[in-house]
Amino acid sequence: MTDTRHLQALREAILNMDLEGIGSVAQAAMDAGVDPKEAITEGMVPGMVEVGQKFEEGEYFLSELVVAGEVMKDGMAVIEPYLTAGGGDDEAKAKAIVATVEGDYHDIGKNIVVTLLGVQGFDVIDLGMDVPTSKIVEEVREHGPVVLGLSALLSTTMARMGEVIEALKSAGLRDSVKVIVGGTPVTPAYAASIGADHCALNAIEGVHKCADWLGNLKEGR
Ligand code: B12
Asked: What is the spatial distance between Cα 14 and Cα 93, in angstroms, rounded to a whole number?
């Protein structure tokens, strides 16, 4: 099979909610030497986007969203070990904290970001989903991360991102951390309006931005 055929098979496994087949499809892609990052972003993610479209069009229901989410997670479990972690073991790794904001139970995109930040060499603290603002601020105070990544998939919960930034300001912590926001409803204009440092277009672009920040910090810029 060509790389494209493997990517297509991954996309279809998500779209068809193939809980039984995803493991072997993902393993076959890895055995064939498909780039694991591509398997995620060019294979499974487009499948999830299509699932979302079908939900919007009324062809899929909530139960299908749930199963597709599970299929994606099972696929990630096979692919993740093929992503090689970066960063030296001898130097203390820079920390990154990642959370899905309060009221939001979407964590698939956030989990991809967590994985890729780890690959980029960050020591990642994953706070999970539905995380209250106060908890996020506490964790930033305790761990002093270089980056705080916030995810929101609902237009209603997106407002929590602004709340977190305001709470960081009140706690005197805003200038200590770069805040990157992401998720389908989040736009650069919205990110700018709440004072975030960056709006990620996707996980890879976002993680590259975090790597740039880390590079600047190391060079004292
Ligand atoms: C799967 C899914 C679910 C699953 C979530 C499972 C899970 N564990 O995550 C379940 C079934 C739980 C669910 C529930 C609901 N969902 Co839903 N869901 C989806 C769906 C189909 C896919 C989301 C997804 O995982 N995409 C794949 C990932 C990889 O993409 P992503 O999250 O966008 O992340 C990428 C980037 O955005 C970025 N990124 C994301 N976050 C961050 C953060 C940082 C820091 C960075 C750098 C990057 C980054 O990186 C990722 C990779 O590139 C979307 C449709 C869609 N197209 O988004 C609807 C969608 C988000 N859901 C929707 C709705 C309405 C709901 C419900 C309210 C449904 C209901 N009636 O109950 C509930 C809400 C529950 C809650 N309180 O959160 C709507 C939201 C509409 C809106 N604008 O508000 C959508 C858009 C569907 C639709 N078209 O109507 N959902």
From this structure: 34
The answer, yes or no, to whether any atom of ligand 1 lies below 6 A from the CB of 187, is no
188 touches ligand 1 (CB under 6 Å) = no
If you count DSSP H runs as helices and E runs as strands, how many of each does the chain have, helices first? 10, 5
Is the minimum distance from the CB of 149 to ligand 1 under 6 angstroms? yes
Which domains does the chain show, CATH number per domain? Answer: 3-82 (1.10.1240.10), 95-218 (3.40.50.280)
Structure tokens at 180: 């990157």
Q: How far apart are the CA of 215 and the centre of ligand 1, in A?
A: 31
Query: How far is the centre of ligand 1, averaged over its atoms, from the C-alpha of 153 (Å)?
Result: 5
Cβ atoms of residues 101 and 164 within 8 Å: yes
DSSP, residue by residue, 16-69: TT-TTTHHHHHHHHHHTT--HHHIIIIIIHHHHHHHHHHHHTTSS-HHHHHHHH
pLDDT tens for the 221 residues of the chain, in order:
678 999 999 999 999 999 999 999 999 999 999 999 999 989 999 998 899 899 889 999 989 988 999 999 999 999 989 987 554 454 678 999 999 999 999 999 999 899 889 888 899 999 999 999 999 999 999 999 999 999 999 999 999 999 999 999 999 999 999 999 999 999 999 999 999 999 998 898 999 999 999 988 887 76
Question: Ligand 1 test: best mutation among 50, 60, 130, 153, most atoms within 8 Å of CB?
Answer: 153
